[in-house]
Amino acid sequence: MPEPFTLEGTHVRLEPLSAAHVPGLVEAASEDRSHYQWAYVPDGTEHMTAYVRDAMAKVASGAHVAFATVRRGRSRGEPDRVVGSTRFCEVAYWQWPPGARHQRAGVPDVVDIGFTFLAASAQRTQVNTEAKLLMMTHAFEVWQVHRVALQTDVRNKRSWAAIERIGGRLDGIMRADRPGADDTVRTSARFSIVAEEWPAVKTRLAASLASR
Fold first, then answer.
1. Beta carbons within 8 Å of 170's beta carbon, 6+ residues apart
2. What is the distance between the alpha carbons of residues 107 and 65, in angstroms, rounded to a whole number?
3. What are the pLDDT digits (tens) for 180-203?
4. CA-to-CA distance for 36 and 89, rounded, in angstroms?
């Protein structure tokens, strides 16, 4: 099970999610809820508290690594602000055959990035780009995972395009995959980036961040 850790960049800090983040997350999620058509984002203190409590239980089980997404103050005197949340999820440790050179201890073999939501004002900004760069850098260069996967509601064409833009390749369509945000049974599009592709993806993310 990974120990809690913080990932920090120029524009964003990803810090271990806790109950203390609930008020900031409630405020972030209330900005403009029309942005959450295809993904569940808790509305109000009661639902956000339950969401964070469930996330922390998954962290305790070793299945997830959950973060609060904190936008760093963009000018002197401007406070840092919680603008969302994200996670490593589907954290998997493979059991290799005895003597396999790939067998490691204490670090996952593959992970997903998911359960991501941002305040409307933080979407399509340096915050999201740098958060993805920080998470993938940790996954591929610290954990040395073989794959990072991402998925979205198959109807969410904006998210689909964004994942492809950073280099995610479509692995397939998962029918009747999970509850949809609109009380449907969701079909998901699943994408991945494998270790051999990471250098090119990193370059693409860094260039995108620099251009914003």
1. 164, 189, 190, 191
2. 12
3. 999 999 999 999 999 999 999 999
4. 20
